[in-house]
Each structure stands twice: as C-alpha cells, then as structure tokens.
C-alpha cells in the first residue's frame, strides 16, 4: 500500500518517487498544490476503491497522514 | 474497438520509450480512453508537455468555477485523435475582463479556440438555490440578464480575438425545486432552462464563429447524477465530477476537429457481416439478414440507416469487399428493402484482391488521399493487414454482436463537421456525376472535344458573407490544387472579407451534368507599392483538369493587370507539400517568371503588366453573376 501511494503521488505531483519521503509535508513543497491534492484524492479513491470524507481530505497534509487515513479504510 | 490496443499496464513503459511527438501519438492513438485512470491522465500529460511540437493548437478555458483538471483530459483526448493542444486557463471568474482588456494574458495568448462555461451558482444564485420563491417577473428578469451578459461577453470575445468560441449552455437540474409539480408551474425550472438554452441556440446560430457546446446533452450522455461531485465542489469549487470531464473533453475535441475541417472524407465498408448478417456467397441475396423481421437483421438495418446519416453530412461511402461483383449487384437489385442503395456509394470495389490494394484504388478513383479513409470491417485480420500496409488509414474493427453496430457510428469522431454546407449535402451526387464525366471522357478520344462537350459555365465574383463557411472549407480541406496550403480559419477569413486591402473572390461552376457548386477561390492582397500579391489560389479537386484555373487566372490578369489599372506587377508564391504536385508548375504555365527559389521547394514568382497574356480556355464560358443565375444549362 505504501509503495502504491508513493507511486501515485509521484505520478500526480510529477516528481520522482525519491522526492516522496516518509516525512514529506504538503506545506514544505510548491508542487503539492490544492488542485493536485484533489487529483491525488481522486486517484487514491479510484485505486484503493475507497471513499474519503471532506474532513479526511483536509487533514491529509503529509505522506504519513495519507498513509494512516488510507489504511483505516482498508 | 480499435486494433493494436495498448495494454494499460504497459502504458508507463510505452510512454517512457517515446523519443518524440510522433512516437507519442502512436502510443496514444491505440489507447482505450475509457480505461484511463486519473493517474494515467497525469502521466500522459507529463509526456505531452515534454514532446509538445511548435504547431500545437492553442485553446483557452474560461469560466467562473474551477475548470481544472479539464484541460488535462482535453489534451489526452486531442492527442488520441492526432492533435496537440497547448492551453491557457483563465483566472477564476475573470472571463469578462480577459476579453475586454487588450493587454490581458488571454488576448496575448492569441487562442485559436476559447472554451467558456459559466455556472449559474455564481451568475444567478437565486435561480440555483431558491427558484420556487421567485416571482414570474423575477425569473424572466434573470433570464434576460443572463442572456445579455453572455451576448455582451461574446461580442467582446469576437471583436478582440480571432478565436472560434465554444460556449456551453446550461444543464437542466435533475431535481427541480418544486418536484414533479415543476411542469405545472406558471414558469417552472424546466421551462426556464428550455427557454434559456433555446434562446442561446437561436441567437448564436447566426454567429458563425460561436459554437454552442451542448452541456445539457453531454450531462445526459454521462448521466445527470454523475456530473456532480459535491465533495469536490465544497472543497475546491469544482462543478464537474472527474467522471464527467471525459465527456466534455471529447466534445471539445470533436469541435476542434470539426472547425479545423479534419473530418475524414470517406467511410469504406466491408459487406458480409458488416452491412448485413451472413455470407452472401453462401446464403444468397434472400438469405442474408438485413430486415427488421429478425433481431440481428434489425440491427444491420439500423446500422445501414446510421451509415446514411453519415452520408448526409457530406461523407462519401464506399464498399471494399471480397465478393463476386455480380452477386453484389444482384443484392442491391433484389434487396430493395435495404436502406442503402447502390447509388449511395461513390466507389465499389468487390473482387478477391487484397484489401489494401482496393482501398488504394478507392482513394484514387475519388481523387482523395488514403489518409482520408476510415475502414470498417468485422474481420480482425483484414484490419491488421490495413494497419500494416497502409497505416495512415484508420481501421475500425466491428463488434462481434451486431447489437453494438448502430452505437458504434455515434462513437466515431472522424466524421464531425462544424457545419454542413450545401456542397456537403450534394457531395455524393457530385461524385456520381463525376463518374458520368469520366465515362464521357473515355468515349471522346480528343481531350478538347471532351472539354467542349462538358459545356462548363463559371462565374468569378467577390465573396459574400454567405460564402465564408465554404471559403474556410476550401482553405482548410483542399490539398492538391492549393499553391501555398496555408490554412486560414474563419476569424482570418472574416478579416480578408471585411478589409478593403484584399480581393477575396470565389468561383462557382456547373456543366451539362449539373451544378459543381463553389469550387474555387483566390485571395489577392493589394499593396501600396502597386505590386499586388496573390496570396492563395485554390481549386477543389472535382473541378480540376478542365482549364477552369486558366479562366480564373485570365480574370485576375484582367482585373489587376489590365491596361486601365494602376498596378504594375503581380507576385505569387508556391510552397511544395507532399500533396500539391499538380500545381508545381502552375504559375509557369500561366506566364509567371520565377524570381527566387529555395531548396525546400518554395518558388517566388512575379508577372509584369506587359507580360500578362490570356491563356486559351475557350471551352469555358465565363459569365457574370446575373447571367449565371438567370440561365440554366
């Protein structure tokens, strides 16, 4: 799951997978913008076949938080 | 259902191995768009950005809600059909300012297309959220205000850009505020939206550069409940769900293709298990399934009726089938219950030769390129053969179950035209007449006697407003008799038409077999130096080979180098393309001198007044407009 999330983030943010470090936070990088964030959400929902709430989406502000929230749905 | 489909999991590696934009097009051409995931769209967009060619089509997106990520979808869909887009996305809610301010980044971008979609949530929130608390007058006032805002916007956009405008209409809500009673209301929501959309339709039908993009139709196609994603709306003001975007993107690409006149010219069909069920050679004309008296027969019957709708758009039909010619003629004679008649086809090749040879023959007999054909067959091996032998031909493999045939026609983007002209409607008849002309030519040994027997009559006259759509068609579609092959769009043509520095003239023709229609044009730019420049000279392929070009050039010489005229010389240019060989020496033949030539095959010409002489073409009768309209052959 972790690897899949990292792959999706790299594809959508258009960066190398190496740039998606475990402690990555949205506010630290320019390429994690609000539009891309929502594309990432759509991709996560599509790939893992889950539905995220608005509250969850707003709190997914780092790689670790995304991992936690997605794993709660699986 | 296209051949060579790329397995989706190979997409990443196929994309990575692309060296240039042509490789990329090849990968994308074979994608099944319905299978693409959100992450695939991003992957492809990244590659498209890396390999964007210089001649991409510029499109701007304007609106009052978040349009991202629509442009990304449109880029992928366009590339799937062979087109590269580069885009500009307007700032949120700046759609009005951006067309008024001549220094705006939109106007600087100089788009060829502008897509605009406005949400009523912003523009008229009362209509969206409290419709059934409004008075009748208030509802009508809202409608009036909405329309005038849109009309005013369109006027600025037309005046300040040369773009073709794709203007969305409004999707009627799936749950009206008054519930099922809405249709019994004094002026219910349904009536309001029907009125609004109908007024937009009627208003913009007259405005040739504005195309209504029927969002309500697209919402229905997708399923109205699917077009919204409330979560994304509340989070980011995205009005449209990710599921709906492919439908909008596809429609945008259909319009771009239509407006750029990229429609394929001919649909070539197999016969057995394509136009009818069963094998003619085995089942005989009465045994094949082609009438509504059984389920499969009805599917083929509907398929034939759908094919006729394509013909009625001005697309030629042809048959390419392995069958005995006699059997095929017999079917058309005996099965008069078939919607398609033998005369609906501009070319029929039925024999046992390999199909790629027959397709080449069809293209040749219709005087079009093989890249203008789309080939439909139920046999994967035949499609594969064509893909290998003539890769420029698009092949469509038909579904095994005939139930899917009628819908397949709807799914093709290749036959979209932005407008259907008189010439389109008469196209098939024109080709039938050309076959008669060819037969007459063969019966005359002497070319001049044949040309005289045709009794060609033409009129050369300045273009009028009503000619402009046809003029754009000639500019964008003519490949052979086209000296420069510069493609002008409607915005540019309107400029030539309205400015006094240009002579934009069209040529109409007819002969003893009937009307050929508006078959040619020339564009001349008048220069202060008295050296006029012949910018374009175009003749439709169906009017070639009978000296009409000389009659037009004689007219130009008289009109612009005549004794009573002030001009001293005329300049012209020939730009070589893979398709315009027929006019390589056209200007030399007309008495022009080559003044400059380069390695790319470009030739510059000039002709001084003293050197202008008429070329003999006495078998063509040149008439003025009144004489032409007043008499018939």
Structural overview:
- The complex is a heterodimer of chains A (74) and B (633).
- In chain A, α1 (2-13) runs antiparallel to α2 (34-48).
- Chain A has a single domain (2-73), classed as ACP-like (Non-ribosomal Peptide Synthetase Peptidyl Carrier Protein, Chain A), CATH 1.10.1200.
- The longest helix of chain A is centred in the middle third of the chain and has 15 residues, at 34-48.
- Chain A has helices at 2-13, 34-48, 54-59, 63-73.
- Chain A is mainly α and 74 residues long.
- Chain B has 633 residues and is of the alpha/beta class.
- Chain B folds into 4 domains: 1-51, no CATH class; 56-259, SGNH hydrolase (Rossmann fold, 3-Layer(aba) Sandwich), CATH 3.40.50.1110; 266-411, HAD superfamily/HAD-like (Rossmann fold, 3-Layer(aba) Sandwich), CATH 3.40.50.1000; 425-630, 3-Layer(aba) Sandwich (Aminopeptidase), CATH 3.40.630.
- Chain B has 26 helices and 19 strands.
- In chain B, strands 11, 12, 13, 14, 15, 16, 17, 18 and 19 form a 9-stranded mixed sheet that branches.
- In chain B, β14 (514-525) and β15 form a beta hairpin.
- In chain B, α4 (70-80) crosses α13 (245-259), α15 runs parallel beside α19 and α20 (422-443) runs antiparallel to α21.
- The interface between A and B is medium-sized, with 16 and 16 residues.
Class from helix and strand fractions of chain B: alpha/beta
CATH fold name of chain A: Non-ribosomal Peptide Synthetase Peptidyl Carrier Protein, Chain A
Main beta-sheet strand count, sense and barrel state of chain A: none
CATH-defined architecture of the largest domain in chain B: 3-Layer(aba) Sandwich
Q: Tell me, what's the shape of chain B?
A: globular
Number of domains of chain B: 4
Which structural class should the secondary elements of chain A be placed in? mainly alpha
The name of the CATH superfamily of the largest domain in chain B reads Gcn5-related N-acetyltransferase (GNAT)
Oligomer designation: heterodimer
The end-to-end span of chain A amounts to 10 Å
Low-confidence stretches of chain B: 1-5
What is the arithmetic mean of pLDDT of chain B?
Answer: 92
